[in-house]
From TrEMBL:
PANTHER family: ALDEHYDE DEHYDROGENASE-RELATED (PTHR11699)
Gene3D superfamilies given in the database record: Aldehyde Dehydrogenase, Chain A, domain 1, Aldehyde Dehydrogenase, Chain A, domain 2
Domain Aldehyde dehydrogenase: 13-479
Keyword presence, Metal-binding: no
Identification of the protein by name: Aldehyde dehydrogenase
Keywords from the named record: Oxidoreductase
Amino acid sequence: MTAGQALFVGGSWVEPEGGHYAVVDPATEETAGWAPEASPGQVRAACAAAREAFGPWSRTAPEDRAAILGRAADLIRRDLVAHAEVARAETGATTGTARGMQVGVAAARFRRYARVEPAEWAIPPQITEAGPMGRAGVLGALAVRQPVGVVACVTSYNNPWANAAGKVAPALAMGNTVVVKPAPQDPLSVYRMARALEAAGVPPGVVNVVSGRSTGVGEAAVESPDVDMVSFTGSTAVGRRIAEVCGRDMRRQLMELGGKGAALVFDDADLASAVAGIGTTFSFYSGQICTAPTRVLAQRGVYDRLVGQLAACARRVKVGDPREPDTVVGPVISAAHRDRVESYVELGRKEGAVVVAGGERPDVPVGFYVAPTLLADCTNAMRVAREEIFGPVVVVIPFDDEEEGIALAGDSDYGLIDYVWSGDVARAFRVARRLRAGGVGINTVGRNMEAPFGGFRKSGVGRDVGSYALHAYSEVQSIVWPG
């Protein structure tokens, strides 16, 4: 691993004024590398560099910007195995997840935004009558997408490659410049991304990366007068604080926050499909994913069978070293987070939930492991059913009929992605339209990577992914002229 990683500011690699701190491998508890601790002054310098670079970059032809993103995608793909090893070491992801869902998705996102799309579109002419504004005539109009400016990209720890790429690539494609503040637990991957962009020819100051464990690093980026927009992925509590800062200066925000995905499983559902989908909570990033179907609402006719099959799934998956090819469940990100997840399981017990599977720490000598855990006989009033646990823990709540299921799904502070499993496609779509969530999966946990992504309520503000990200990282300007 890289020792003594430098910051990337204004096109230069600079030593951090706050020194370095150890990045811990969650699987081995050993040091995976040394990350830089930026000072608030260095963060402000990064924002100023991005401001200075914004004018020339925003005027660069979209084709030229796209070419740089395409080269970056190729460079990331070329070194995928080496990048994935770093990602695995600092996040605890399994080798397959690190290669396919972290680095692989990042390369795909840069490739996606290397495709130039029209940034303007015509509006039908308008015939105007004579009046205070002038003589009668015809007014033509054009809507033009303009870059927002400097974007502070504050990324999450659960997927440092894909999450950062999902912000940086569309922002750069639209002509913005960026200051990336990665999560303190696993910033090394983001610096590798910056190196790929540098090698691809991104001009100095267009991309900057500053990291640190201190909250002052993120605060300096969010509060900088040079920043025009903040794109944040993380907890609702932190998102609220960022929104308060942005609101004072009316700055743009894109917030992808917490989730407590409701999975409605009806009596006529294909249980094998439902169990496979819900079971991803036990395996995918060890449940550290906001889109996970963690709150299962099971209709009474299928409740017992579903609980039994989910319990069998939880017991069957292998927990252990993410480097081993047959490992399904790796560690969570840190000892502190393991303690937090375990405390929720204990809270569930006290609240009256039945621990059907898991609930005990796995017998693995080192590493921050949590056993895949299933809590049954829950109610929607329990904290384990209302709060985001962010670990391999699933709660199951029974319901009687469609109306009750919909009501239970909607009784939540969150609304990111919900799920419906039913053999009646008409009912599945009918229910989906009534769920207050930014996305709904019908008989699948898969995602269409062009579909808009974002949440209702406390799950976020705004939408990105695909063409929607180009809208998210742009302002729309109207130009009107006499016909």
